[in-house]
Amino acid sequence: MSPAYTVPLMKTTHSGVGQAKMSHVKQVGLLAAGCQPWNKDICAASGDRFAYCATLAVYIYQLDHRYNEFKLHAIMSEHKKTITAISWCPHNPDVFASASADSLVIIWNVNEQKVVAKLDNTKGSKNQKHVLRPESLEGTDEEDPVTALEWDPLSTDYLLVANLHNGIRLVDSESLSCITTFSFPSAAASVQCLAWVSSAPGMFITGACSSQYPTKNHHTSSTSEAVPPPTLTPNQAFSLPPGHTVCCFMDGGVGLYDMGAKKWDFLRDLGHVETIFDCKFKPDNPDLLATASFDGTIKVWDINTLSAVYTSPGNEGVIYSISWAPGNLNCIAGGTSRNGAFIWDVRKGKMITRFTEYWTLGATTIDRPPIRPYVTDYNPLGSAVKPVLNPPHCPLMQSTLPEFDNEDFVRNSVEILAEVKHGKNGIFCIAWSHKDSKRIATCSSDGFCIIRTIDGNVLHKYKHPAAVFGCDWSQNNKDMIATGCEDKNVRVYYLATSSDQPLKVFTGHTAKVFHVRWSPLREGILCSGSDDGTVRIWDYTQDACINVLSGHTAPVRGLMWNPEIPYLLISGSWDYTIRVWDTRDGTCLDTVYDHGADVYGLTCHPSRPFTMASCSRDSTVRLWSLTPLINPLQINIITERCWDDIIGNTDRAVESGAPPLLCGKVSRDIKQELEKLSGNLRGKKLRWFSEYFSPPGGSKNLWDLVAVIKGQDDSLLPQNYCKGIMHMKHLIRFRLSKAQELTTVKMSKFGGGIGAPSKEERLKEAAEIHLRLGQIQRYCELMVELGEWDKALSVAPGVSMKYWRKLMQRRADQLIQEENDDVIPYCIAIGDVKKLVSFFTSRGQLKEALLVAQAACEGNIQMLPLSTTSGTSNSGGNNTDDYNDKLAMANLIRGNELELAISVGTVLGESAAHATHYALELLARKCMAVITWDLAVDLLMMIPDNKLQLVKLCAFYPGCIAEINDLHEKCNLPDVEECMRLAETIQADGDIFETIKYYLLSTEPEKALPVGIQYVKEQLCGSDWTLDSVFSYLDLLSYIRTEQLMLPKCSEFRNELLILCGYVGALLAIRRQYNSIVPALYEYTRPPDELPCTPPSESQRALYSVLVSRIQEEPLKGMVGPDCVTGSNLPSHSDVHTSCLTGLKIQGPVFFLEDGKSAISLNDALMWAKVNPFSPLGTGIRLNPF
């Protein structure tokens, strides 16, 4: 490889793109928490939003009017104790209040996603002006949680707050003071909910329960309470009608029910309601992810649909750790806070094994201790707590053991209990050996790491001087296991010996060690995370610490080695961050701030090694793509580089400064499978690696569609194909099958069970499918069966007039049998006078019968003409597939999935060629941002007519003359001196475009500026220019080397170029409907001293119409519409950034401009760069967000 293609992008201080930055780790999925079941007032609605509470966070959903569906808008997480109530402000739909068990009340602004105020009382503080703790509790440590709160509908500041035991207070949120207090009538009563009485200002009602009769944990909050009275201004009207109810369920599910239509407008599956401590992918299925939570359950999620498919029975106490059985055994081992360890059969849904210890008391053996402390004298979550013998009521922590009042007996038994409490007082980690499926390791607060067989036989008991928090089996030696201990040390044990002493003890951490992880690729290398905030890398063979990773500001919990890149390590911490490390030199490659609380678990699957899952105390599971960290690898595959540039051994990969190489088993398996095949392997190679690199949620489905388009036999499609997006030729077949299944379903004697669809609901669904398939007659018959005649008759003419008449006659016969007067219009409409006369005569209405007969004789009632023309038809065209190809490619490009777009486009071939070439050009621009110019050349070489793209690349290349000439030679272009001579010759001939091109390639590229700018200005002054006629010139000029553009002698031309690019870019943005950046682009073109815009005059409107005519149609089909990258709609807990373009909060990924402070959304950055290559800051530096 020539050194000319590996130099840094810029050698000057004006680095064209290197100073802008964005996160390398992309959030691609979110599993939201469920709604907590133990408080009452924890769901509310206002306008087109509704909210519910998990234990520590408030989830805000908002109606997306474009798709008429509710989407997660924000997650509010500031409370440190359980949230007990929320209430929306009736006067401001952007403001709501939340309260927690520590009497903290927070006022939130939903639109800005930030805290407006905190109404708190720090115990003993003298500078607090307000009192939220009841006066009777001031100066004490007693807790009295807030159970309900409601805004006063007649005041913007007053808030009604109820505490569990000490009455109700009216609080002024503005002055932060308590106005008045209302006492309970009985000491036994407690307020669970309250509401203002709208018809009686100042009056409110409460819902209370005696402590002897707790209420049920099912509750609703009607949005009708949020509908404003008629006296409010129109802009305070709310979209959600009073007939909607927010419902929260015991299993954590949340729904929005339309009581009028009797249907769910929104229904979210069950979710965890508490801290999620661990997450693990199923070894033989990368689509299934298991999570373990403080709420006592394990849930298994399908990460393609982000829905729970299995849930454990629950009631296990806190589940700290889980481990899948190796292979396809479909079992999960779990470690709990109180019930020891267990094995759960996921498919059968039951616990099949529990690991318990026998308790010895003197000469007597019993199977449980006489009493168990509620908590120990330390807490693995961090905060110190006191042991208590009689725990308070808690739905998650109820002891099932018998209670003893003899404290002396308990005190005398403590020593015995300490010897045998493994499995009864906190299993912090459980690990199933994947080298020997019969062995499971557990570690506990009793200081033991115990190795068992799956049937419970204890093989080894390794005693530690303090609690053991983590253990991990070596992936290279089935008999080696490492542990992390509270005594700050890491130990390595060898099971093949009978010794209970460790082979190695690694010291160096200054606080307790939690998790330990062996490297899957580097034998003898392991890492440990500690409460000292560091991660240490240990080399077992050298008996030494080889690196210390510092950066976290709180204890480290989650640890994960990447199974393909041997030096890549990810850690999660109580500082709410995830850090990605290069362990070769200790560099932190990226820091992710999106979680709203402690990060506990990190995991990925070897078959999809660059998709990571994380879990947190914020009760969410988030999915991440790590592919930006190893981008050159994907481009190496696309450009068909040799295998040595893609797959390597560990020794090569861990060399300092070496590019990333795949070293795992899965990548080697792909290579071996490809080498076994013959013929054209490019399509399979692109597909297999694309699925390997891409996050879940559609990549496999996309490739199935590509296979169908390329003519693959339908029998080769996977079984779950019909669950995703289907090709049009399959849509009718699969939907018809679904309709038939719904129609013929046999309901059992007792129905389908609670929550199962009724027969009527199934028939309605089937009918809707038939209607969408154009099978109108089948739809009509199902509507008749459901008794919905009007719907059937309204569309029956679409079958034929003959069928409509028959249906009308059937309806008339039915109404006659019911003696219903509604039969009259039916008989008149079909001209069945005889039937109508008989109907009236039978009822003694002779005058009515005579009147109808006479009208018929006079011709006023006539038979409608018959038509045998069927209303059903099938439409289609030969170009449908081509159009869909282009549309799919455009959507991939607009989502910045450039590598995937190129892979798909390459396989599709000619039908997607234009979009593929555009994606190649954008990806080449991305390579110009880093030291991968050789890859940019290779990408552009894949475009058949690539001369102009290669000219732009060479023009922007910042190397010395010799390096530039080397690049010119590779691109089949003249050297810089020859380009100078050609430019002067061509300029004399009057070819402006070629003159600009060769000047840019010459030793004096700045000479292109006056030539090109003057030409564009002349064009704009004319009357026949179009957007496409001037954009090509400006786009070419924009590739002038940044250091040349920054020369003082070029300042005037630079300013003109930036203004012209902004103006023309705005027109191009209008054509592509990049509406969010159009105002900023025009602002970019105005001189600083120009007055703000005023409403357009008639002449300005006329000028705008002329401009629109010059814009013309977008040649790239499907490129019209805003860009939307993966994760754009996912809420984050990151610092709220405001866009310097729009002034609005940035939703989704953020892109920082070259000053390191100004930020815009990644979506806006991508759209801006596609229409105007220069930074919005006006510095002349090119923008490269690709």
UniProtKB/TrEMBL annotation:
Residue ranges constituting the Anaphase-promoting complex subunit 4-like WD40 domain according to the UniProt record: 87-198
Pfam name, any one: WD40
UniProt xrefs under SMART domains: WD40
Intervals holding WD repeats: 76-118, 269-311, 506-548, 549-591, 592-626
Organism domain of life: Eukaryota
Keyword field contains Ligase: no
Keyword Ubl conjugation listed: no
InterPro entries: Apc4-like_WD40_dom (IPR024977), Quinoprotein_ADH-like_sf (IPR011047), WD40/YVTN_repeat-like_dom_sf (IPR015943), WD40_PAC1 (IPR020472), WD40_repeat_CS (IPR019775), WD40_repeat_dom_sf (IPR036322), WD40_rpt (IPR001680)
Keywords: Repeat, WD repeat
Designated name of the protein: Anaphase-promoting complex subunit 4-like WD40 domain-containing protein
Protein source organism: Hirundo rustica rustica
